[in-house]
Amino acid sequence: MVARLLGLAFLYLTTTVDITHAIDIKHNGEVQYQNSSVYGVLGKAVILECGPSVPDMYLWSFIKPGTETIRAVMINVGNGPRIQKVAQTLGQLTTISNSAALNIDKLSLAAHGTYTCQAFYEQQDAELLLIWYSVKLFVRVPVSKPHLLVSDASPVEGSNMWMRCSLDNGTGPIQYVWQHETREGNVTFFAQGNSSVINVTDVNRNHTGWYRCVASNSVNHETSNRLWLDTIFGPDVPHINVTPYSITERGYSALERDTVSLLCQAQSNPPSQYVWYYNNNQVNTGPHFTITKVLRMHTGDYACLAQNSYLNTRSKKTISLTVYYPPDGSPSCSVEPALNHTSLRLLCSWPGGFPAPSLHWTGDLVHAQQDDADKGQQTNPLTRTAMLLPSGGLTPNNSLFTCTGSHSALKQPAECSTRTYIPPAEPVCLAYVTNREYLMLSCSWDGGAPKALLWWEGPGGQSKGGEENSNILVLRYGTARNGKPYTCHAMHPLLVQPKTCNLTLEAPVLFTQRRVVSVYEGSDVQLTCSLRANYLPTDEITWFNNQGVNIRDTSKYRLLQTSAWANLTVRDTDETLDSGEYRCTTHNAVGGTDINITLVVNRYPMPPNATLIRVMYSSKLRNEVELEWRVENEEQGGWTGFVLEHRWVSERPGRRDSRNESEGQGVERMSTPAWYHTFIQDPDVRIHIIGRLTPTVKYQFRIRPINRRTIGHPSSTKTPAEPRSNLYPAVIGSAIGGMLFAAILTVLLLIYIIRNRNNNPRLHDMLFGSQLSQSRENINFPEDEVHGSDGGRIGESPSPGPTILPRAASPFTTSPLSVPPTPTAPPLGDDNEPVNVTITVKTTGS
């Protein structure tokens, strides 16, 4: 039986039919139909009924609108309901217990369609009863919260616009209601209908306010958020309120120092921006403009300009404000010359004020006359603002005049005074030069009231017309007349005759203390040049040297000058370079001058001669030479130092020569070797060592004395000698000892020969000659007396005269007996006459 039912059920499912009614198949085979309609709300729950009783089996299917396909959504064949997968798109499907009704929770839009329930009932006669239930489900969507849109949230007055109430969801038909809320909170129905759009024509400022739209259908109704509609308009013509309020023919008026407040109002949306103008000049912004302590200068036109910045439109209104005020300060008095500086005119003015003030003069006005400028305008001469005083010196010096002014706005009158007087000092004349182009003669006479009139008169038509207080005559540079007077005339109304001052222009004259200056070379000398008097302004004094070159400050020359003198210092003078004529010159607008100064640079006197007395190597190394010298006439002075000069002469390849002579046997290296100089600054030095010499070179040395810059004559040249050996003292001592011993032996030998001349006559005759036998010698020994031939003595000599002994020769001579002296016989005389013996010892050394 179950199988039959299942087969029949699937037979119906697989058959595509257009079912619009419930089908009830009776036992006799007829089908009964039952249909119904159900309305559901999106997202809510709905129940679809399947008969009044629970069938033995049932099957729910779904047909989507616009299609013919039947989809099974739930089956119950006796073992419980089973939901098919296709049911997931319809919502959450469940069955109600003890019922075949279908519950759809969270209804979706896809659930909209036709649902069929095939209910099978088993009868007692084993017949199968099938009832076909058809349920149409309509899913309705509630209206969502509407959104209010406008074509222009800030429409301009007079334009058109539209409003739209926009919905995201909602099942029609939908009704729309439009609400308008004013600024004051009053709510009115602006429009309603089934259209979501309304058009507003000719928008005006009354449309400004809050707007809402209410959308409703069979399910629900929703209200939109409110939207502000701001109508743009204006500005209207402004209205100006003036406080305090005072109307005159010219507009509004105020008293000086009052506070005036101006208020400007003009209807506009957005609110107007206000700009205040005073006489077309912007003075303030904003609706209020307050003038605290209004002054006379505030009189004029005030305009309020209202601006709508959104529409860029404006409107303007202008009022006129007049401030009544007295004149500023007090009256002003002055006195001026009239009738070519022969008379005086009194002036009094008090400008400003409304209305004009009244003025009158007081003082010494007995002789006052009516000014030509005021004739026909005033009847009372004492109330005029200009008074002409008489000429011819009738007005006393230092006269005082007073002008009194009155005004209706003032409680007390105001006054001023002026005094006329002659300048206290005398006119002053000056002259100065501008850029070496023009000479300007200035004349001034300061002080006085009124100012004096001055003019120049000069030679050759060089004049200048009159000017007050000061006058300048301009002459081209070099056109002024030398020694000619230029006169400045000064005229004052209180004087009968003018005063004068004179200028006599002269070319400059230079002088110097010495026209010839003599100095020794090497020293600094100062040459002076000065202006003889305070002349017309001159150019600076210029110096030229002995070559005619313009002198500037250098290491050679130093200039020290002012406007009246210039001193030139020549440094480190030289006879050749600096001797000669120096010239200083200057000039002014009248002429120029110069002066020559002769500078004589003398050389210092020639120093005395110096002689080298010792030139010797200081050691065996031959690289240093010690020199010693002396100066002739040292007590007279005349030198400041020395120059030691040396040069090499030759280089000896063999042994070194130690003799102090200028000749040598060496090899010459250069034909004319140069002299090397060593300067000695101390004049008292007499010994000096020159080092760093070449040992194999032969040198020559000489010395020159120096007197400042004058170099003396050179001495004779010398070559250095070899240094003395350390054995010299021993050798010299031995030589002296040997000579003394030889001398003693010689003396003893001579004594022996003399005493024994008779025994050795030949030896005696060989040494003293034959005539000595006849001479008598007294050598302090009595036994040595020599007797004549009568005594029979040996060794007689026929030649007369005394016999002279030769001088003893030095043992160091090469041949001591080579040159004996010729003996001469002494004259005959007494045998006891003594014999003179001379012994000379001469020592020579290398």
| Mean pLDDT metric | 80
Q: Would you tell me the structural class of the helices and strands?
A: mainly beta
Radius of gyration over alpha carbons? 77 Å
Question: What's the total number of strands?
Answer: 57
Helicity, as a percent range: under 10%
Distance between the termini: 180 Å
> How many helical elements?
4
Largest sheet: 7 strands, mixed
General form: flat
| Percent in strands | 35-45%
Write the layout of secondary structure elements.
Blueprint: H1 2-13, E1 24-25, E2 32-41, E3 46-48, E4 57-63, E5 70-76, E6 82-83, E7 92-95, E8 102-105, E9 113-122, E10 128-140, E11 147-150, E12 161-166, E13 175-181, E14 187-193, E15 197-200, E16 209-216, E17 221-223, E18 227-229, E19 239-243, E20 247-248, E21 251-255, E22 260-265, E23 273-278, E24 281-285, E25 288-291, E26 300-308, E27 313-324, E28 332-338, E29 343-349, E30 358-363, E31 369-370, E32 386-389, E33 399-406, E34 414-420, E35 428-434, E36 438-444, E37 453-457, E38 464-468, E39 470-476, E40 485-491, E41 499-504, E42 510-511, E43 516-520, E44 525-531, E45 542-544, E46 557-561, E47 565-570, H2 575-578, E48 580-587, E49 592-602, E50 610-617, E51 625-631, E52 641-651, E53 667-668, E54 676-680, E55 687-690, E56 697-707, E57 710-711, H3 728-755, H4 761-768
Parallel strand pairs: 2-10, 21-27, 43-49
Antiparallel strand pairs: 1-10, 3-8, 4-5, 4-9, 5-6, 7-8, 9-10, 11-12, 12-15, 13-14, 13-16, 16-17, 16-18, 19-22, 20-21, 22-25, 23-24, 23-26, 26-27, 28-29, 29-32, 30-33, 31-32, 33-34, 35-36, 36-39, 37-38, 37-40, 40-41, 42-44, 44-47, 45-48, 46-47, 48-49, 50-51, 51-55, 52-53, 52-54, 52-56, 56-57
